[in-house]
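I'd like us to work through together how a protein chain folds, taking it slowly. To get us started, please write out a protein record for me. Label the sequence line and the structure token line clearly, so we can match residues to local backbone shapes. Once you have written the record down, we can walk along the chain together.
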Amino acid sequence: MGLIQRYNMLLFLLLLVMGFIHGDTSKDSQWLLSIKTKLIDPQGVLDNWSSKVNICSWNGVKCSVSLNQVVGLNLSNSGLSGSISSEFSNLVSLQILDLSLNFLTGIIPSELAQLQNLTELHLYTNSLSGEIPREIGLLKKLQVLRIGDNLLSGEITSTIGNLSDLRVLGLGYCQLNGSIPVEIGNLMNLKSLNLQKNSLSGYTPQEIGNCKQLQLFSVENNNLQGRIPASIGKLEALEILNLSNNTLSGSIPVELGDLSNLNYLSLLGNRLNGEIPLELNQLNQLRTLDLSRNNLSGSIRIFVENIESLVLADNFLTGEVPRHLCMGNSPNLRKLFLARNKLSGGIPNELLNCSSLRQLDLSDNDLTGELPSNIDNLENLTDLLLNNNSFTGILPAQIGSLSNLESLFLFHNSLTGSIPAEIGKLQRLSLLYLYENQMSGTIPLELMNCSSLTEIDFFGNHFSGSIPSTVGKLKNLVLLQLRQNDLSGPIPPSLGYCKNLRSLALADNNLSGTLPVTLKFLTDLTLVTLYNNSLQGPLPEALFLLKNLTVINISHNKFTGSIYPLSGSNSLIVMDLTNNSFSGPIPTRLAESKGLIRLRLGENFLNGKIPPEFGALTELSFLDLSSNNLTGDIPIQLSKCKKLEHFTLQNNNFVGIIPSWLGSLQSLGELDLSSNKFHGQVPSELGNCSRLLKLSLSDNNLSGDIPLEIGNLSSLNVLNLQRNNLSGSIPATIQQCTKLYMLRLSENSLVGEIPSELGELNDLQEMLDLSSNSLSGEIPSSLGNLIKLERLNLSFNQLQGDVPSSLGTLTSLHVLNLTNNRLQGELPSGFSQFPPNSFLGNDKLCGAPLSPCSRSMGLVRKSLSDTAVAGIVVAIVFTSTMICLTMLYIMLRIWCNWRRVSISNSDGSTGDEFKKGEDKWVYGNDHQKKIHGEYWKVLNCMNVLASPEQVSSNTCIFQLKANNNVV
């Protein structure tokens, strides 16, 4: 070695020693110290970044051979926060920058493009935002770019296509949108492309086929559409292809059969259709195939050898479960999911050769037949899901030999028989679902040996006998669902030792006895449903210790005493104690369950008032306190319960007026205050409850008019105001309640006519009851439009006139009561089906089913009212009188003419002499003279005969007029 070389080596060693002793003053250290000030370092990872320490010994720093240039910086998973400083761009020798798995925010600075020696950039799993800078395409030496799992948005910049040396591109788990740039096809050296879980749209570019080195391509959970490009078949090195959860359509391209190295293919969750291509059977390396949740049809034609996971669920596949899956060289099948298709037939025996099978899901198909007795051939089975089919027969005893079984789902089939005792051998069994079958017999004691059981669901069978007294051995039990069976006897006290129990559903059985005190130990219990049994006695006070209860339904039993023990939990959402014999006041403590939604305490013997504290139950939607002995008024505090939908207080002893603030409960759908002692008027504010479906205020002491605002209840189905003291007329605005199904206004003091507008209530079906009022006028013919009406009661009113013929067309009407009115005339022909007592108290009604009407009366009364008939009679009398007078006039003329002729012929007197005597007679002042003169003239005219041709035409006319003026 020469002198100069020795000198340089000595100088290098000297500088090295001085650097360690006296610290580092290089430019890179200065930049890193400045960068440190931009970062928050709660874990102290950067504590040794100091000018007093050589930079090459700083945490995460890798130096070059010359010891004064930083070529690598790895601060991954260091708990750092803050932003990425643009000063990183000054580390010009940097080749690897890894800031992944931290809590960094802000944008990716475009200045990083100045790091021309950078080969790897790892920024994944932070909280970076903004867009991917276009300048990133200037990093010509970049081989690894992993910036996914951030909050990045915008499109994938096309300049990425300039990174010709890129091997790994990770942009998954961001918020990127737009399409995949076609420039991706320029990345000839790319081996891994991960774009999953973004919002990318558009089509998968055909240019992807240029990335011949690609081994992993994942774009799952985006919004890509269109067909799968056939060019993917050119990616011969591809091992993993994941296109799942997009909106890809069309058929599966046969070119995928050319991917000879493919071992994972997932196309699930798209809109692919057509049949499964046979070309996929060329994929000899394939281990996982998932084509589920598409629209694929046809039969299952997969023959791939050594496949381990085959998932074809949620399609429209038909035919039988394939027999070939476990034949020949396919012993490695571990997972077979064919659920939710249209497969038929039974379970083939060949399938039982899959001894390696661990998960078998054939649920939700049309499979039939019995469960194979050699099911125990599947010795490695952990999950067996055969639910929602039409399997029959019994559960074979061989099921007890599946020692690895953890989940057994057989629900919703037609299985019969009992549970085999051998099931007690399944020490690993965790989930046992047999619900909705036709199984019977007792629950075997051996089942209590399955110590790993967490969920038992036998709902909707015919199991009988008692609940095993040793049920407490199931220490891990979380759910016990035995509802809707024929179980009897008491609830075993040992149940209290299942301390993990959260859901207890024993409803719809024949259970009896009292609740065991040991239930107090079930401190995790959240749901209890015991309704429709014969349980009795008071509730154990210790139940107050159950602080996590959210749902309690013990309705329709025989419980007595106070309900206070059930008020210990502040987490209650639903409480239903209907139809028991509970007594005492309603606990105010229930108001501490702020999340209470449904509270049903009806049909008990509760007394006292509604606690005002219930105003704090602002989530309450259902409040049923009906059929108790409650008193007092409705507390105004309930006006705060704005979400109340059902409010029923009927059959109590409430007093006072119906509060107007009820109109502020905009969500109210049912309001039933019937059979109480409310007085005052019906509040007009109820017209604001636009969602009200049922309004029942019957059997109270309400008075005044029915408010016009009732017409605002356009959604109303039932309106019941009967048996009150309401007065005034029926408001025509009721016609606006177009969805009325029942209308009952009977036993009030309503007056006036029945509004014809009621005929517009086309949905009125169950009943129209206006009986026992003082309604008058005629029955509107418009009621004949109520073609759905089944019951009509207009009895005990003052209705008159004919029964409209339109009512006879009501073919749905099967109950009719028109009794005790003033109706008359012939009944419509369609009324013959009703009994005669439907019309009692209307004496002038006739026609079937009453006595027949007379022909003349029928003809007249059929079309005319009483007034019209009277008018006709008067007209007939008047016409007859006029005819008689006319005849009399004609006869008088004849006699007068005859008399005149006779006088003229005998004495030669003229007509003037006769006229003088006539004038005197007509204008005489003496009434008696007038009468006698009239009488005389008539005699003369009648007794003297004369020839007609000699008679003056005016003589007897005048005399007739005089005759008519006689008083």
Q: What stands out?
A: The chain is about 15% helix and 20% strand. Confidence is low (pLDDT under 50) at residues 1-23, 856-865, 895-967. The longest helix spans residues 866-907.
